[in-house]
Write a structure and sequence with these properties.
Layout: E1 13-22, E2 25-35, E3 40-44, H1 51-58, E4 66-71, E5 74-75, H2 78-84, E6 85-88, H3 100-111, H4 119-125, H5 141-154, E7 159-163, H6 171-186, E8 190-194, E9 207-210
Helix pairs in contact: 3-5, 4-5
The structure holds adenosine-5'-triphosphate.
Adenosine-5'-triphosphate (ATP) binds at residues 22, 27, 45, 47-53.
Length: 215
């Protein structure tokens, strides 16, 4: 039994005995953790400790080797994942030939749109006003990262899985990520964040989930 289980409100995300192995070699786990609405949790670990692999399992890209993941008390399904979980990976996940606006409209078509925001508003919130119609291939790495952040703002997912969201960003971009995480927590969402940087989510003192290389 996990400490505090009987008194806890329903967690947004719950992992029990979660593990992943590759070629019979353990990558992480078994892990038990819960993430509640309004929480940002930092996943910490050395290079190769399994942080990216964990996020890929939680986002449904990889099947768990063992254990279970529940979202709002229910087992993961592809339909639930696509509308409730947003993954920001190492790669920006954008079509290079499309403009930022076209990329965002594509994402809205697949994942839906959060109430009260538009693609133009999202792009201006991440400092990309004036870049709406530029082919994405012409953007810098940091500007592409900002388009990915605009996509997070647009989609209605309650759970954000952010893999090194600060990578390629300047100081102002780092502050932007922290403001977005704050806003996500305040509106009742939650986020799991991997980062090597000491600048990660400095608002309050976020809970930390340590991962250790198992091999
Ligand atoms: N596609 C793959 N094929 C085989 N092994 C892989 C693959 N991806 C990752 N690994 C291995 O799985 C382990 C965990 O990798 P993972 O990328 O999850 O670590 P990480 O904690 O995110 O690392 P980093 O801090 O360097 O980003 C490593 O030992 C890595 O070599």
């Amino acid at each position: 039994m996990i400490a505090g289980e009987s008194n806890d409100p329903m967690p947004l995300l719950e992992a029990r005995d979660l593990s992943y192995s590759r070629n019979d070699e353990p990558v992480f786990g078994p892990l038990d953790f819960r993430l509640h609405a309004g929480e940002v949790v930092l996943i910490e670990g050395d290079n190769g400790s399994g942080k990216t692999t964990l996020l890929r399992v939680l986002s449904g890209l990889l099947a768990p080797g063992g254990g279970s993941v529940r979202l709002n008390g229910e087992n993961l399904t592809v339909a639930r994942l696509s509308h409730q979980v947003a993954l920001l990976g190492h790669q920006p996940g954008l079509k290079a030939d499309l403009t930022p606006l076209e990329n965002l409209n594509f994402a809205i078509g697949v994942f839906g749109l959060r109430a009260g925001i538009t693609p133009h508003l999202a792009l201006s919130s991440v400092g990309l006003e004036g870049y709406e119609d530029v082919p994405t291939r012409q953007l810098s790495a940091g500007q592409k990262k900002r388009v990915s952040l605009a996509r997070l703002l647009l989609v209605p997912a309650a759970l954000w899985l952010l893999d090194e969201p600060y990578a390629n960003l300047d100081r102002e971009g780092i502050d932007l990520v922290n403001r977005l995480l704050d806003a996500q927590a305040r509106r009742g969402g939650a986020a799991l964040v991997t980062s090597h940087g000491a600048y990660a989510f400095t608002s309050g003192s976020p809970r930390r989930l340590p991962l250790r290389a198992t091999a």
